[in-house]
C-alpha cells in the first residue's frame, strides 16, 4: 500500500525515533509498504518518520541511481552498482574525515534541492529484517543516502546542513510546503 509522505513542518520529522523489537506489529507489511511508497514517489530512500512512524527504520535502494546514470558518469563512483537494504535500529559508528558535496533532495521537502557537504564514508551498525546485526561501511552515493535517511531517524533534515543565509532564502518555499501549498506526483500528508 502506498502511504502518504509526511511534509516538512510535521513535528515527527524533528523527533528522535525509538528502537523496535522483532515483535513490532506487522513489520513485514510496513517494510513492504515503505518500499512501495518509496518507488511510487521516485525516491532512493525512505525513513519511518516520513510515513508518520517514530521508529528507527529506513530503507535504501541506491541501485536505481546507478541504473539511471548517463554513460559518461558510469564507473565514477566507488559504490556502483549500489545496494538495496533495510536498516533497523541503526547507529552510526563513525565517518571518515574526507568530505564531498552532492546535490540532495528529500521526499518530505519537495522541489528543493541543495548541494550538501557530508563525509564520503560512513560505518553503521544495524539490523536487517530478520533482526540479524550487521556492521558495514558504505561510501559514495550509497553512503550519502544512508546518512540522509539516518538523519531522519535522528530528527534531522538535509536543510540543517545548509548555510543560514541560504536557508533563509528558502524560507518562503519551506513555509509553502508546511502549509500544503505545493503539488507533487505522490501522496503527501501536511501538518495541521
From TrEMBL:
Q: Which cofactor does it need?
A: Fe(2+)
Q: How and how many cofactors are bound, per the record note? A: Binds 1 Fe(2+) ion.
Quote the EC number: 3.5.1.88
Per UniProt, the keywords (alphabetical) are: Hydrolase, Iron, Metal-binding, Protein biosynthesis
Which reactions fall under this protein's catalytic activity?
A: N-terminal N-formyl-L-methionyl-[peptide] + H2O = N-terminal L-methionyl-[peptide] + formate
- A Pfam match is Pep_deformylase
Give the enzyme's main class according to its UniProt record, as a single word: hydrolase
Q: Which residues bind Fe cation?
A: 106, 148, 152
Question: What InterPro entries does the database record attribute to this sequence?
Answer: Peptide_deformylase (IPR023635), Peptide_deformylase_sf (IPR036821)
Q: What are the TM regions of this chain, as residue ranges? A: none
Q: Which GO terms describe its molecular function?
A: metal ion binding; peptide deformylase activity
Q: Which family does it belong to?
A: Belongs to the polypeptide deformylase family.
Q: What biological function has been recorded for the protein in this entry?
A: Removes the formyl group from the N-terminal Met of newly synthesized proteins. Requires at least a dipeptide for an efficient rate of reaction. N-terminal L-methionine is a prerequisite for activity but the enzyme has broad specificity at other positions.
NCBIfam families given for it?
pept_deformyl, PRK00150.1-3
The name on file for this protein is: Peptide deformylase
What lineage is on file? Bacteria, Pseudomonadati, Bacteroidota, Chitinophagia, Chitinophagales
Amino acid at each position: 500500500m502506498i502511504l502518504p509522505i509526511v511534509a516538512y513542518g510535521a513535528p515527527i520529522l524533528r523527533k528522535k525515533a525509538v528502537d523496535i523489537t522483532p515483535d513490532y506489529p506487522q513489520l513485514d507489511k510496513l517494510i513492504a509498504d515503505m518500499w512501495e511508497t518509496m518507488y511510487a514517489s521516485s525516491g532512493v530512500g525512505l525513513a519511518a518518520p516520513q510515513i508518520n512512524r517514530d521508529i528507527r527504520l529506513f530503507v535504501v535502494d541506491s541501485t536505481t541511481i546507478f541504473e539511471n546514470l548517463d554513460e559518461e558518469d558510469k564507473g565514477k563512483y566507488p559504490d556502483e552498482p549500489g545496494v538495496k537494504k533495510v536498516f533497523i535500529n541503526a547507529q552510526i559508528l563513525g565517518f571518515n574525515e574526507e568530505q564531498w558535496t552532492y546535490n540532495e533532495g528529500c521526499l518530505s521537502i519537495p522541489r528543493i534541492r541543495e548541494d550538501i557537504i557530508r563525509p564520503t564514508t560512513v560505518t553503521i551498525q544495524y539490523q536487517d529484517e530478520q533482526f540479524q546485526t550487521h556492521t558495514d561501511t558504505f561510501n559514495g552515493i550509497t553512503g550519502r543516502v544512508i546518512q540522509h535517511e539516518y538523519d531522519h531517524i535522528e530528527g534531522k533534515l538535509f536543510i540543517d546542513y545548509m548555510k543560514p543565509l541560504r536557508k533563509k532564502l528558502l524560507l518562503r518555499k519551506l513555509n509553502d510546503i508546511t502549509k500544503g501549498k505545493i503539488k507533487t506526483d505522490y501522496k503527501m500528508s501536511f501538518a495541521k
